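User: Can you predict the 3D structure for this chain?
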Amino acid sequence: MLTEPRRRAYLGAMQIVQWLPRAELPFAAPSRPALFEVFSEAEAPEAPQAQAPEHAPAPQREAVAPPAARRPPKIEIPRPQPSRLAKAAEPEPATAPVAVAKPTPPPRFALQLLRAGRCLLLVELPTGEAFQSRDPAYLLLKDMLRAAGLSDAPRIIGEPVRWPLLARGNLDQGPEAARDFVQGFVAAQCEAEPCACLWLVGLPALRYSAGGDESAWYTDWSADGLGLVWALPGLELLMDEPPRKAAVWHSMRRMMARWKPLDE
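Assistant: Here is the predicted structure, written as structure tokens:
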């Protein structure tokens, strides 16, 4: 049996610094309590890894494609040119709204054609209705015919010409269509029974038969397809403005020779 000094001598020869006996040894010095602490797995010292020899052959690896070959194909995105960017940045000029021409509403008038002696009369109907024997406008017309030396019982030709002709429909009933209709109607009567002078009484009669306006009142001229025409204000205007009757009388004295017989 070894004594403690001898045992330490043997352990020192074997270069053992610390050791723990399995059982209590006789004549051994008491053990230190720190040697009996159990080391945990986390605190256990890692086993040294075996180092490969310096000249050991490198293990064979599978051929791996270079990194560039594994990259996805690059997609080129077209970029707009600077000039296009500048044009896109410029605001588009505001276009002026296109003015849509509104259709001209049809004119509204009523005309009556009469014959007195050698004259035809295209007269505006003040109320839009046919003349009645007691109408003030018709009585004024009879006075004008007597002053002109014509019959004061004029013959009415046809129905009044009322415009527009149709209340509905897509038929053009503008001013041009009204002028063509009235001119054609009066020209047909003049051709059927010639007259010495055509009286145009009222602005619609003047405008839509001979194409004149107020400046032509109290004057006469030769119109295509109608012969000699004489323009006068409307009967209602003559009643509202009596001084105009004097201008009609002075113009009538100049015109009477056109329709009076030569033997009178």
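The chain has a mean pLDDT of 80. Helices lie at 4-13, 67-70, 82-89, 136-147, 175-192, 203-210, 235-240, 243-259.
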